Model the fold of this input.
Amino acid sequence: MRQLLYTLLFLFAAVAQAQIISYNFEEAEAKSRRLIYKMPDSALIIIKKTLSQQGKLHDTIQGNTYNLYGLYYNQKGRQDSAIHYYNKAIGYTNDFPKIKIRILINTCMAYRSKGEYTTSIKYANEALELSKKAKFNRGIAMAYGELASNYNYMLDYNKSVDYLLKAIAIAKQESRPLGTLKQKLANTYMQMENYTFAKDLYIESLAEFKAMGNYKNYYLTHTNLAEALLRLKDVSGAKASLKEAVTGLEKFGDNELIGITYSKIGSTEQLQAHYPQAIAAYQKAVDRLLTVQSARIIRVAGDYIGLLTIGKDYKKALEVINITEKHMDPDKANLEDRMVYRKAAAEVYANTGNTTKAVPAYNEAITLMDSLKSIEKKGEVQELQAKFQTDLQREKNIALEGHNKILKESASTDKWIMILYIIISIIVMVMIVSLLRSYRLKNKLQNIELKNIETEKNLIKQQHMHEQELNNAQREIIEEKQRELTSLVLKMANYQDSLNDVIDKVETSVLTKAGDVKKELQHIIKQKDYWKQFETKFNNLHPEFNNNMVQRFSKLTKNDIEFCSLLKLNLSNKEIASLLQISHESAITKKYRIKKKMAVNDDAEFEKILMEI
Done:
């Protein structure tokens, strides 16, 4: 029985081994790589079949196949699943640095797509160190490219430019395709608002991606190209690119990229004043981005809210704000996206009367705008453009020199002179075009700066208006309390008049019986202690009045200060005399003595001092 069992196990192992031997892993991997960027679902069938092979698979097979599994989910826009399989792949490739480097780069891109730039940079640096150690130049170039993309999203253009130049130099040295690096370079020019040069680079990248069969990057580049064309007022060209992009990306099911593309469609419709179509496109964009919790929703939501504000649909705008802040943290976005979002939200709050939220939102928008201004963009992009275009021109010059050498051997002197004339003409034309382009770029930057200044002025004006409203409200409260206090003083005066009336009745024998006098006095006693109420309310309204008077005018007595408190209420000498049960002349004399103690002679100056304290 035991022998039979051993025989069966042996046969099973032999069959499994034969199955592995008969399965062509190299061909399966090559086919998966060809399909992953065109038909990812077809590639997944091969990937699963590879992993289902019985027996122990080699670590390189496991690592490469799980890496392809991660790429599949990357094409679908499901970055968390992609990262899961990339991490599994890394575990199999510690002894195979070149394979591990590619997987680290893919992991870096997945975290960047999630907006987790710090983690993405960590993986890029790990890939860079491993590439340097292995002397793998292609890996170094890929790591530099990913670092450039991360710093571009973080608005650190100085580092982004530096890494891009390094990556391009290595790629040229290795004679590698420049499609991806040109795309990243174009993204930088887009951020720097050099739309013409960005458009040219995107068009070059499209041709390379199509030739390579990298269709997802091809459609994504169409989305970016549409943005550049919009900035250049080529609406029809932008629409054509967006139509091709959204149709192609739908095949991959990447909701983040589809959502971004719909937001560009919304911008296009808004530029043509097609507001219903623009709102519909932006709503699709927000819905798609929310399904994958994309960090890009902050900017898209900000643009959408701005569009709704134009149409005065504040109810819908508030809904977008609430759902965005419920599912995403705006503070995790980069400075520019946060500024756009906070400014749009502030406008909605201001137009709906919510000053409690409007003022801090405006303040944050102004702060973010100041931070953006402090980032020096202009120098880096000009340096990059100059170096990159100089390199291109140098390559062209080298090619021309070789061609001229051949012409020199086979052509006459006249032809040689003609060629030189043509070359000089081309150089002069290139210089003229470069100067015109530089002038146009400078003019655009100046216009943008003026627009930013105007926007900042409007924000400050809005903030001033809100502060003015708050001051007016406080002033009304103070005036109301002042009226209450004056009313109380008049009641006090009435109280004193009632006492005088009783005294007059006794003196004129109107009241002769003690019982009648007592009854009159008891009636007066039942009234409130108005002087005490006056003192309490006055101190609440002007809490520092008594202390300030004592500190500034030490000669004044308590009675003097109480007299001044009545004057502060703008009561006349006659009203004060009635209230204090003194004669009108005594009130005038009292006021004169107080002015003398305060070393003040002029009535206007005296009243001004009381009003200011």
User: Anything to note?
Assistant: The chain has 28 helices and no strands. The domain at 487-612 is CATH 1.10.10.10 (Arc Repressor Mutant, subunit A).
